[in-house]
Amino acid sequence: MSIYTLGIDIGSTASKCVILADGKDIVSKSLIAVGAGTSGPQRAIAQVLEEAGMTKEDMSYVLATGYGRNSLESVANHQMSELSCHAKGAAFLFPDVHTVIDIGGQDVKILQIENGVMTNFVMNDKCAAGTGRFLDVMARVLEVKVEDLGALSAQSTKDVAISSTCTVFAESEVISQLAQETDKCDIIKGIHRSVASRVVGLAHRVGIRDLVVMTGGVAQNVGIVQALEEELGHTVHTSPLTQYNGALGAALFAYQKYLKEQKA
Amino acid sequence: MAKTVSPGVLALRKVVDDVHADARKAHAEGRLVGWSSSKFPCELAAAFDLDVMYPENQAAGIAANRDGEIMCQAAEDLGFDNDICGYARISLAYAAGKRASRKVDLETGEYVINPNSGKPLKDENGKVVIDPETGKPKKDPKTMVPYTVLDDIYEIEALPEGREKELRKAAIKPYRQMQIPQPDFVLCCNNICNCMTKWYENIARMRNIPLIMIDIPYNNTVEVADTNVAYVRAQFDNAIKQLEELTGKKFDEKKFEQACANANRTASAWLRVCDYLQYKPAPYSGFDLFNHMADIVTARAKVQAAEAFELLEKDLAEAVKNGETTTPFPEQYRVMFEGIPCWPKLPNLFKPLKANGVNVTAVVYAPAFGFVYDDLDGMARAYYKAPNSVCIEQGVDWREGICRDNKVDGVLVHYNRSCKPWSGYMAEMQRRFTEDLGVPCAGFDGDQADPRNFNEAQYETRVQGLVEAMEANKAKKEAEAK
Fold first, then answer.
1. How many domains does chain B have?
2. B373 and which of A86, A194, A224, B378 could share a cystine (Cβ 3.0–4.6 Å)?
3. Which CATH entry fits the domain spanning A1-94+244-264: 2.160.10.10, 3.90.1200.10, 3.30.450.40, 3.30.420.40?
């Protein structure tokens, strides 16, 4: 009989869940676009269980991660930081990974991985520049959907520098570019480069070694991935499961914890 | 169970209490009281029997008493930018006469209690009592406190004698750091930071009092050149002349020599106390060292400080012998805490460390204040070396030495918004710690005095991440050893 584990990742902007069978096969996954402090976590849990046709009691171990992890003490057997969970998830998807770049709603994390385990990390300071929230704000100003940013930046034909590293001031820079009738696609590419240069500056603090993997929702933005590759001079790998990476890592840790507890 | 406090700790507390009481007494008796930066040569002031207060310690105390924000804001209202060091802002507001006070009803003379303050009321079984009317926990009235308001000592002093004056004077918060006398002169040595120069110049101008300045330029080399020593020695001579003019007394060489001997004795005892963190498990936490900073800064040239540290040393020897520790949890990991703590958020800082069994067994203060010298040239050299006046090579060397001696598993770095020079080179230092020591590092944003710059959730994630990285590192080392 299979062992089922549930990983829950409650971020600042989304709630994600993954159910794993025997620590290797994804049974179901869910994503609700609101995070910590909302109905998102409960809805995401209900959805992942429903999709799997299971109940909470079928789960041998539940592990929560992300900013909202501590609000799930009644549901989860254990809580871990999203840092280790992202490392775990990335190492599962890309066994040769040595560097993980995760851009979340309010955090940028660069993780150093050795043999699938996080050995060091660096995170952004208390500033939203370079995070998912930064891109949300820019998309709103530009009146485009955040998910279209990547495709639009690919149509850029001219370099536009967005020099500011502050979300609020970058917003006014973008507004002034719009007032000068600069092409939106060029502005978006400039925004991506601005994010990439900030993230890469952070990444150099822990060092960059191949394989470089990008996780988190922002990894779906091909414009950011491309800008990062240009800045880093390394290929940046992504997975279709990128948004679920933290929850996947949590489910993998849950499986390990379960086995350890059984042995004990 | 009530926490027992060792005789050494009690003696250290008394030393600081006495320093404050002496200064208040001197002021009341019309004698001069100075304010000094933490690493101004205290031996010089001691040679003139001067009472001196230390604004950095004062600001830390005010911040720890949760009044950092109101005082910082008061300084900002006076026109000081919120980018300036939180200690400087608190001190400048205090120098301007601003005080954190309890809100008092001038009609009734009663303090106005803040209904949002206080801890939940618990019944005899330790359960939180719920108010049936609101459905929310009831407050324990004993833990509720009055609103904090900003007052002005000069405004109070200008009032005619009477009830309002008395009530407002009495309403100023009673803890010692909010009761220190205004300065009659200031002693500034900018070895500890460069912001200090403008901070003290502002106080001197604000209060129209003498400023005695010792300038220590940033040192780009590990060794202190003879020309630099000569530059500092000449300033010592000038400071002595200024102190002679200020006090109308001649420089007393005997008292100076005694003060130097005391300072050396205190520093040596302090270093030995710091060394007890090398034991595994450590008999106390690095957070305790932060508390003893008040003694090493405010009373280094006093024999009582040396005696108190020597007593603490004995307590620690006994604790090690008996396998005891003041750390309230089993020590699973040992870290260096880099930088000044976030004083207003000390419990929040400690909580995730305690939850994860992380003991702070290394801090960089030990070499910073534990300096011993033989002669005046040696003294000049010693004052040349403070955390922010030395080059990165020296800074890394100090820290890595403590990390190795105190056997740390990781480093937790406070990127302190108040202290740009200290935080500025930490990213490079972090890189070197990992490369040279093979330990993970985590950095978090905060501030030594302004609580607005700290985010608990972000801090907790970084601590948990550090713990997980230390766990992985330990497992790796254990596997390699097998």
1. 1
2. B378
3. 3.30.420.40
